[in-house]
Amino acid sequence: MTDTARLRPLADRAAAATPPGMARGIRGLSDRAIAWTFISPTIALLLAINIFPLLWTVYLSFTNYRANRPNAPLVWLGGQHYTDILTSPDIWAAMQVTARFVIASITIQTLVGFALAWLIDKKFRGHGVWTTVILLPMMLSPAVVGNFWTFLYQPQIGLFNYMISFVTGVPPSSFQMLGDTTLSPWAIVIVDTWMWTPYVMLICLAGLRSIPDSIYEAAEVDRASKWRQFVSITLPMALPFIMLAVLFRGIENFKMFDMVNLLTGGGPGSTTEVASITLKREAFEKWRTGYASAFAIILFVTVFGLANIYVKALNRVKQR
Amino acid sequence: MKRLLATLGALVAAVLVAAPSGNAYAQGKSLTLCWAAWDPANALVELSKDFTAKSGVNMKFEFVPWPNFADRMLNELNSKGKLCDLMIGDSQWIGGAAENGHYVKLNDFFAREGIKIDDFMPATVAGYASWPKGTPNYWALPAMGDALAWTYRKDWFGRPELQTAFKQKYNRDLAPPKTQAELKDIAEFFQGREIDGKKVYGAAIFTERGSEGITMGVANALYSHGFKYQDPDKPYAMDGFVNSADAVAGLEFYKQLFKCCAPPGYSNSYMQEGLDAFKSGQVALQMNWFAFFPGLHKDPNVGGERIGFFVNPPAKTHGSQLGGQGISVVAYSPNKDEALNYVKWFASAEVQKRWWSLGGYSCHKAVLEDPGFPSSAPFAADFLTAMGEVQDFWAEPSYAQLLLSMQKRVHDYVVADQGTAKQALDMLIQDWTKVFKEDGKI
How far apart are the C-alpha atoms of B355 and B360, rounded to whole Å? Predict the structure, then answer.
């Protein structure tokens, strides 16, 4: 019995169960209209929870609105918030901190993640167990990670300082990972790398496993060296996956909030005050809703623009 | 029909018999009181049992840890939430809460119930209850007096070998400091010293970045050096006051104290970290709020005879940072009458005396002016002294913006070594001027 023949009784029963009025109505609709009927609830939901808030945020960004003073008169400020933000040295400092954090963490995570994926891809005894162990940090809650790394970094009792002391001979309480302006940005990069390198590794591993063995076999026949195989086969074929991992991590780290908030709160001073911390302070501590909306729009446009350029580059690499 | 009428009659009679008692009427009612999660809150829970016994109104509590207290509760007020019937909000919230209609104005209620605001210490009325400042418009009843002061390890100070070493170095006795300079000397003396085989440090001071910590700590140093928020004759004129030579000296002093004498890793610490450092025997001196002193005095390891207390010492003048809060009725509460009843009950002299005995800091003159008060606790006399010299941060509706600017500028200077004290204070004036301009104050 063909599929169509098997499904016919079901279709007949559905048609019979449909009230005649509705059946008449549906019969009169075009395919396009039926499609719209089905997707309209989703579209309505999307408009309500995504598009409307976005448009509302854009509107608020041109006003002096403060969520804690709903009764205050709303004044149209034009682009004043945008001008203030783009000329504010504090905002530029926060953007620079964000950029440095994104670049440092992604570079390290990509290198380490790819190296781990490459090692895990080589079948060895117990590699399944090692893969699970490596993936563990990624499965933890950022709140938990932030809190226990705060203890690890404690200069007097923290394990991290004792490990550094053991290796270098420097007294453990002589340096502060979270309280020093030079070390604190690196303290966050270390934690982010510890937590999210497994994620990069997973994506890279998928890339490495997608390379057919026949290509390596052909290279072996041609007597290509291992290095040559790596440079000419492994790297180019895994590159789209690596780029994808960089894209995901880049977007995530650009809006990094939880880890920084838990580890340093943006300090010491403003050394680790990334853009999302500044945004949170403006929106929910200073209650400058209009100003914060403008800043959120600027951040959104920045991430969206950079991601678009990057996706175009990614597509070009995939087409090669 | 007759039977139906008889049943109805019985029901009406039952309702009438049950209704007259106010206590019984209040049975089943409950009030939620919102405050910070700290030692005095536990004392208030104990105290409020008396209110429940008297009124029949059940008391519920919503206590939030200090670092999240302002965020959580201001969100609640701004969203016109009905969670809190009574709010013991921070002193700086009073301007915003009054102007945005979050608190019920209490003037009529005070007049109706015969509650005299003059029965409370003037500094607490100005700090916790009135807005605009200095006017007889009351939005809260002073509930919990508090100020920033110091604790020290009395047992260490009393050790002969340390006394001798200190006298040799500073040519005076090792005793609670009488000036800010002496305070720094003592902190330096203890920094890195070995006591009972353990390395100890000088002073646990406030350096927290996220909420209000470093501002409160720095303010204590600024006030004692002569800092003023504005020209007394010209409101909101800050140049020459916020960045005066005295203010610069105060800020520089705080940085020196942090650099010389704080324990390692103490760059983002507030009251809880200070308590931890002191209770674990890490530090000789601790800056903290009076609210914690009853608990510290009872501590089995560092309390009793091992702990001493002193008021923030002067440099050029006397000054302490005001803490503490007033109790307000939330305007969005569906139980305003019961909440007002609680305030009325709380305002009575008897309840205030019991409040102090349980560990709360009463602001009522019947308690504070009692001849036995200074000797009622080892820190009671210091509390009176401190409350006589307190200053508070801005209580403007935009206090959060003003506070966050100061957090940034002083943390950048004190902890992150950016710029000079003068530059930090100049930038602070720029930030504050911008806020006041946005608010139409200047």
Answer: 5
The residue count for chain A: 320
Residues of A in contact with B441 (CB under 8 A): none
Q: Which residues from chain B sit within 8 angstroms of residue A70, using beta carbons?
A: 78
Which residue in this structure is represented by tokens 């004290």? B421
Residue among A68, A81, A263, A278 with most chain B CBs within 10 A, to mutate: A68
Structure tokens that stand for B40 in this block: 């005095």
Judging contacts by C-beta atoms under 8 Å, the chain B residues touching residue A71 are: 100-101
Whole-number Å distance between alpha carbons of B352 and B363 = 8
Considering the entire predicted model, what is its pTM?
Answer: 0.85
List beta partners, residue B320.
Answer: B390
Please tell me the total count of domains within chain B: 2
Strand pairing partners for B391? B321
Q: Which residue type is seen at A152?
A: L
A-interface mutation test, from B72, B267, B438, most A Cβ less than 10 A away: B267
Q: The domain spanning residue B376 has which CATH number?
A: 3.40.190.10
Decide if the complex's ipTM is over 0.90. Answer: no
Candidates B259, B268, B406, B413: best to mutate against A (most CBs of A within 10 A) is B268
Q: What is the residue whose two structure tokens read 């209009």?
A: A290
Same domain, B307 and B404: yes
Question: How far is residue B428's CA from residue B415's CA, in Å, rounded to a whole number?
Answer: 16
**Which DSSP string corresponds to A123-179?**
--TTHHHHHHHHHHHHHS-HHHHHHHHHHHT-TTT-HHHHHHHHHH---GGG--TTT
Residues of B in contact with A158 (CB under 8 A): 265
Q: Please, where are the H alpha helices in chain A?
A: 3-17, 20-27, 31-46, 52-60, 80-86, 89-121, 127-139, 142-152, 159-168, 183-209, 213-221, 226-229, 235-254, 258-263, 275-280, 289-319
Peptide bond into A268 cis (omega under 30): yes
A–B interface: beta-carbon pairs under 8 A: 85
> Could you report the per-residue pLDDT of B264-303, keeping only the tens digit for each?
989 999 999 999 999 999 999 999 999 999 999 999 999 9
Residue B7 lies in a domain: no
Give residue for tokens 């970045």.
B209
The pLDDT, as a whole number, for residue B227 is 96
Which A positions 25-84 lie with beta carbon below 8 A of chain B? 64, 67-71
Fold of A80-319: MetI-like fold (1.10.3720)
Enclosing domain of residue B67: 30-146+323-391
Nearest of B225, B271, B221 to residue B246 by alpha carbon = B225
